[in-house]
Amino acid sequence: xxxxxxxxxxxxxxxxxxxxxxxxxxxxxxxxxxxxxxxxxxxxxxxxxxxxxxxxxxxxxxxxxxxxxxxxxxxxxxxxxxxxxxxxxxxxxxxxxxxxxxxxxxxxxxxxx
Length: 113
What we know:
InterPro entries: Ptyr_pPase, Ptyr_pPase_sf, UCP029416_PTP. By secondary structure, this protein is an alpha/beta fold. The protein contains four helices and four strands. The protein has one domain (about 1-105): Rossmann fold (3-Layer(aba) Sandwich), CATH 3.40.50.2300. It has helices spanning about 15-20, 45-50, 60-75, 90-105, and strands at about 1-10, 30-35, 55, 75-80. The longest helix has 15 residues, at about 60-75. The chain is globular and about 35 Å long.
């Protein structure tokens, strides 16, 4: 079973949306976190160590992750989705964008289009 971590800044909009979209899949465990210290669920070394794949929403998240958690990264693959902070939680446009971007990595992702 793949362990997937979604990361944004505050863990309020983008990464929790991604987590919710994939939470019911039987072939993966998903979590989400934020890089900011005041995030709803702040990113920790334990979460980074847990993950097989880490999807970050922006390059700045990847940079923070690599700077602050380099020892915890181990074998985790980091993938930047390039999704700007322009969406509300579970906004249909964000859901579709996540589905499209993640279909490359999970070809069996059902889309809501």
